[in-house]
Amino acid sequence: MGKFHVLILLLVFFSFSLFHGGLSRAIKGKSQGGSEEEWGYVQVRPKAHMFWWLYKSPYRVEQPSKPWPIILWLQGGPGASGVGIGNFEEIGPLDTDLKPRNSTWLKMADLLFVDNPVGTGYSFVEDTRMLVKTDDEAATDLTTLLMELFNRNESLQKSHLYIVAESYGGKFAVTAGLSVLKAIDAGKLKLKLGGVALGNSWISPEDFVFAWGPLLKDVSRLDVNGLKKSNSLAEKISQQLKDGQYIDATNTWSQLESVIGANSNSVDFYNFLQDEGMGPVALTASEFSNGFFSVNRYSRYLSSLRVSPGNGDGDLDILMNGVIKKKLKIPDNVTWGGQSDLVFSYLAGDFMRPRIAEVNELLSKGVNVTIYSGQLDLICATKGTEAWIDKLKWEGLQDFLSTERSPLYCKEDQATKGFYKSYKNLQFFWILGAGHFVPVEQPCVALDMAGAITQSPAAAEAS
Ligand SMILES: *[C@@H]1O[C@H](CO)[C@@H](O)[C@H](O)[C@H]1NC(C)=O
Ligand SMILES: *[C@@H]1O[C@H](CO)[C@@H](O)[C@H](O)[C@H]1NC(C)=O
Ligand SMILES: *[C@@H]1O[C@H](CO)[C@@H](O)[C@H](O)[C@H]1NC(C)=O
Ligand SMILES: *[C@@H]1O[C@H](CO)[C@@H](O)[C@H](O)[C@H]1NC(C)=O
């Protein structure tokens, strides 16, 4: 009942002429919280429809020298929905109980959630052959979407766009960053790219699989026998990658996860201080074999973090296929998450491919790159992230590595929340006490970080 009140639209109109394709349209509304929202589909290729949802911040600060930023949030998976998970579970204006989120990143920027790549969340294909098989294909589609949104909108063009990614989204972010730059240079895209931020991102799978065993051994979650088994599978993956056997490497990765699960009594890959399935819902066997990046796993883990006493609500799937689907006027036959598993399978040949070279390229082109990492993450562990950073060929690397870092605090809290350092256009945030989902587990310091990443005029006011 209360939900519907929150969702009342003060202003709704359809504009069928804005975008081509029968399903493509922009819908505009205003939430009770005061943030203006727009959403719609863009047909990025024939039979391939991508869904976007833009929130204009009610906290906007006008400062002539600093444009109000837009964050494009890219979820991982591949196949996990930014419109669902990133929005309602991490940084959007409302949580899954449709209550306001105090730590929403709208306090620092406008938020653009996109269900990327096609087949994810509300995005869909009419023919599964239209699903993407590589990060580059995904980047091309995303660039097409940005051309539709930005090219005819002078007000959007005034902002800097920051691509902020989590997990597998980091691979999409770096390939999309390069694709966006190319389109800008070619005069095809009117947009100012502010930077790219990689949160616990799967940039170099090989470095992560080599980090898992030693990290878990150091914190007593594996013994020397488990460590040996883990390392030997990591070696196998390394060889498969050298030989270009990417699908085999994906299969070995899955095998390695099972071995670690069995030898650690099911450590949680998103926070190694926890057991997998510690949340309210036990995992079924089929979900277990489905890979740790599965969409179900994400939302389970996140709902296990949520404290909602005496409230049975909050199941993301019910929300996204219920009141939100209705509000957004998603076509009846589109199921949120209905094609997500296919997205993962179609990308199996690219899943283990590293994207370090793309980070190099962004850095050498002068794009601001932020890397942030939750201390307790296993799947994209800080140890693995530091290992791939060491492999950068960027000329500033040695100076970056020798730069001293500074502690981070939040508000009046005296406790150390993390560390930070930057050199030229690369900056790194180490976030303490958070696993894979930094904005969920450390919302205060994550919000400050969002302000810093986007050079938000709201951040300048707060400090
Ligand atoms: C909400 O945020 C404000 C300022 O950012 C803070 O003072 C307050 O304690 C927060 N409230 C909750 C419930 O977290
Ligand atoms: C939904 O129905 C429309 C119209 O019949 C069709 O074009 C579209 O392909 C369908 N979508 C899905 C995901 O099946
Ligand atoms: C484009 O800009 C106008 C303001 O000029 C705004 O009202 C409109 O909602 C924008 N469209 C999109 C898709 O953001
Ligand atoms: C890029 O980073 C530098 C150094 O932190 C900063 O001064 C500049 O404003 C950033 N540019 C953008 C577009 O965010």
What does this structure look like?
This protein has 463 residues and is α/β, with parallel strands linked by helices. Helix content is 39%, strand content 19%. The chain contains 19 helices and 13 strands. The chain has helices spanning 2-7, 82-91, 135-150, 154-157, 169-185, 205-218, 224-242, 246-263, 285-288, 295-305, 316-320, 323-328, 340-346, 356-364, 382-390, 397-402, 438-441, 443-453, 457-462; strands at residues 13-15, 25-30, 36-45, 48-56, 70-74, 110-114, 124-125, 160-167, 192-201, 369-374, 406-410, 413-423, 426-431. Strands 1, 2, 3, 4, 5, 6, 7, 8, 9, 10, 11, 12 and 13 form a 13-stranded mixed beta sheet that branches. Strand 8, helix 5 (169-185) and strand 9 (192-201) form a beta-alpha-beta unit. Mean pLDDT is 87; it is low at 1-23, 279-295 and 305-314. One of its GO terms (cellular component) is extracellular region. Keywords: Carboxypeptidase, Hydrolase, Protease, Secreted, Signal. It is an enzyme of class 3 (hydrolase).
What tags apply to this protein structure?
39% helix, Ser_caboxypep_ser_AS, secreted, binds 2-acetamido-2-deoxy-beta-D-glucopyranose, 13-stranded mixed sheet, 463 residues, Rossmann fold, alpha/beta
Q: Which CATH first-tier class of the domain at 2-201 and 351-462 would you pick?
A: Alpha Beta
Q: Which molecules are bound in this entry?
A: 2-acetamido-2-deoxy-beta-D-glucopyranose
Secondary structural class: alpha/beta
Low-pLDDT parts are 1-23, 279-295, 305-314
CATH third-tier fold name of the domain at 2-201 and 351-462: Rossmann fold
> Strand portion, in percent?
15-25%
Rg, nearest Å: 21 Å
